[in-house]
Amino acid sequence: MNWRFSIRMARREGRASRGRLGLYVGAITIGVGALVAINAYRGDLQRAVRAESRTLLGADLELRSRTPFLDSLEALVDSLVAEGAERARVTTLGSMVFAEATGQTRLAQLRAVEGNYPFYGEIETEPADAWSQLTAGRNVIVDPALLLYLDAAIGDSVAIGDLRFAITGTVRSVPGEVSFFTAIGPRAFVDARHLPGTGLVQFGSLVRYAMYLQVADSREVERFLNTHNEQLQGWRIGYDTVAEREEELTEILDTQARFLGLIGLIALLLGGIGVASAIHVYVSSKLPTVATLRCLGATPSTAFTTYLLEAAALGLAGAVLGAGLGVGIQLALPYVLADFLPVQIVPRFSPAVVAGGIALGVAVALLFALLPLLAIRRVSPLRALRHDVEDLGAWYRDRARWGVVASLIALAVALSIWQAPHWAAGLAFGGGVATSIAVLWLFALLLRRLARRYFPRRAPYPFRQGIANLFRPHNQTIAVTLAAGFGIFLLATVGVVQRSLLTQLTLADDGPRPNLVLFDVQQDQSDTVVAILEASGSEIREVTPIIPARIAALRGIPVADVQREDPDPPDRWAIRREYRHTYRDTMTATEELVRGTWWTEPRPAADGPARVSIEEDLAAELRVDVGDRITWDIQGVQIETEIASVRRVDWARFETNFFFVFEPGVLESAPQTVVALVRQPDETLRNTVQRDVVRRFPNVSIVDLASVQEALDGIVSNVTLAIRFMALFSIVTGIIVLIGAVATSRFQRLRESALLRTLGARSHQVRLVLVTEYAALGGLAAITGTLLGVAAGWSLVRFFFEIEASIPVGQLIAIAGGALAITMAVGATSSRDVLRQAPLSVLRRLTG
Amino acid sequence: MIIVAKNLEQTYTSGGQPLTVLADIDLGIPAESFVAIVGPSGSGKTTLLGLLAGLDRPSRGTVELDGVDLATLTEDERATLRAERIGFVFQTFQLIPTLTALENVLVPVELQGGGGTEAAARAAELLARVGLGERVHHYPAQLSGGEQQRVALARAFANEPRILFADEPTGNLDADTGGGVIDLLVNLNQERQTTLVLVTHDQALADRAHRVIRLRGGRIVDDVEPARS
Questions:
Q1: Interchain proximity A300–B75, CB inside 8 Å
Q2: Per-residue confidence (pLDDT) for residue A204, from 0 to 100
Q3: Is A174 helix (H, G, I), strand (E, B) or coil?
Q4: pLDDT at position A848, please?
Q5: What share of chain A is helix, strand, coil (3-state, %, to 5)?
Q6: Rounded distance, CA A2 to CA A294, Å?
Q7: Do the beta carbons of residue A834 and residue A842 sit within 8 Å?
Q8: pLDDT for A542-552, tens place per residue?
Q9: Contact residues, chain A, for B197 at CB < 8 Å
Q10: Cα(A195)–Cα(A349) distance, rounded to whole angstroms?
């Protein structure tokens, strides 16, 4: 082999083919750009989380409880404080905030802060000194979203519970928290001294107590947790350390980034197909040159190396450009994803990611280019003497070709596994890609067969000629179907997944359903609240009593011992959590009896255990079934129950649903709150009734579902933006690939069209021949690709995301139609060349 | 004998049927001679040329080129043999469109590992010899058919081949231009003491050869040495 000649020749060829191989470069550029951007972003993300790990928690240790901290715990912490630790507290509960000036009310997440929280990082506010001034008076700092809802401004006063506060600022960022959800649950920070005065902490209110500790040496945290782990569990105290928080967050964010990375990988694989088709066209045009070189004494490997070098050089150029593009996108990603990120991303140039991206780009470019390039080795020098010469040896006997195919598959699988959130997803991804290629291949073969078998002999000439093109020698049926079909397949898959995810995030609008939820209504307030609601003309759908309870014993074994004594221990969370029970004598529309019997008759033994019904999935988690006994601790009173039935519950329906339902006659006298579901279609009335209830009972919380939906819509459009942003890469590459695939066959057809013209075919006849062929190819690719995409998307959605699939029919038709249109447009454009120029010049150009 | 063909036969499969395009070819061509292979279309002229030049493998028989049995050579070895000892002129010129005239002429030299300013000077000289001294940096598309074929001539002689194969070198040129090209070809052939094997159906051109081999239906029907003019 003659390296010097190959390098020299490759350089000279590159000089002339730069424009023609732009497609090739573009395909690689976009794929590499997407991957470099995502991987660099992942690096930035990890660095940001590591750098901010302490501020993410705001302390060295966080202790959490659903009930006020026990004195014994306080004593433990006191001893730490005595040794020099610092302590802060944040008590969080839902509360209505009522703006007196505008009469608007809105449910907010009230956070009562005590001490120097956060110890690490800063809560940024507008104006900047608002946080330090929080304790200076009865001040409140709120999320900007809350101001918007209340139509209030800084300086206004709001009522929270029984007290009035002055809004002194808005929150810009809280370390470790995502601004994403504040649209649904806006935050309001107050000084903890004022919490008792609000009267909000009442029986049944959902309050979360958190304690934050700062220690001199982080090992003290470990020592403390190691020593007191058992006690903390017994007291139902949750905790989080800096390391744990960092680990959780890295994992969540990395998974998020990897999903985007898979979309990037699709762009790169599509780019690979673009490369294959661009090189295929290029090689076809180079066959005479190769034959001449072979006549002049170039060995097959010298000729092959020449074009391999050229492909490598162009691949490198494409990859370098792509890396540049990727770095540019890396800078943009933090803005696109800002609302999802609890950390401040500072993009940093990562030589490793850029080098890796370039290497990957060149590898993908070369492997995909090799498939068509290998044909050069088999070009017979005889071609220089005559045109219709067979190549040396059949392609399927070419071992190198199978080697390349195997390497391609290995590369695709390796890349999928590397980029996917976990190896199984990577394998599934790779398998899906392989299956689709196989199916497309089969369909293309089938089309060729059918076109030959059912050839329309009586059709007009151009139509016949176009159909014949599908199966004549040198036909491009398989190449175009594979390339275009695969592009369409990927676009359709992304489309289905995207639509399903978005549908999942949208509250189904199934007719007149309740749009106000009132909770934390005390038992003695219930009648008055109902009266206010009725007076406003609102329709009360449901008034449900709620009784908080915890499991005291399971099948007679005290909760503390269940985990140890039970050979098949139930889920820890399930036995320790706080439950909210209700009681009623009928099942609701969202419930279905699975096992056991409902209590239609009075209890057989009046002094026996009370009957309860359990939800199906929870029964599995608790390892209990009909007949098992559970002892409940309800406000210090122990109540023995027996499971009478198991229910299936449709949680997705908008009703109040419960894990446990008690038979009537047991809980009526227990301390309880009430939840009411109400429908009030008129927005103004809805606002007034909320105001009236909150004025009377500030402790009652009201969720207006219309505003929740509004907030959800905002989130959905944010998610869409992120998905679409990445899908854009696939779409752009897909279009490039499609053009490439059609251009592949275009080259073959150019000469024939010129010949037809020479023989006297009129322009529209030539055009019709081409359009017929491209319409058939584009149609097959569009239909097969779309169906495959729907199948793949559906499987992904059902088995991976485990949600209901939703098919975006309009979008799919647009993708398929668009692909078909592009295919035919490129076909028509190719005929323009022939129709414009004298046939002879085309013939001469192609043969010379 | 610089070329010896023994019992050559070439059979292709066409539509499942064997199709013999060349049979019972025995011939010897002495060095520095000028042989024309003539015959009507489809008589197997070009097939014979391809076999003699080692561009294709015969179904049966042997070809010995400059003392080497082509059958014993691999594809690479035959390519090397062509690079070192053989030149080609084609009916459709087969210049490489992306290379300038000079670069086209340099290809055979560079394929043998040569190159550099000295080789470039020699190639430019060859181009001047064929009357294209002014057009060395032009691309094929910027040259007329006659000019292109003259570049091809220069390229054919660039590696100082022992044998030159020409396939209808005037087939794509008008009579006047073709005549000029043939004059150049014959002169260069004599100047450089090359063996010239030329396929043509142009009788006037064949008449200038030392020897005319006539093919019909894939067999040699006539092998004469016309009187030299």
A1: yes
A2: 74
A3: coil
A4: 41
A5: 60, 15, 25
A6: 13
A7: yes
A8: 889 999 898 99
A9: none
A10: 48
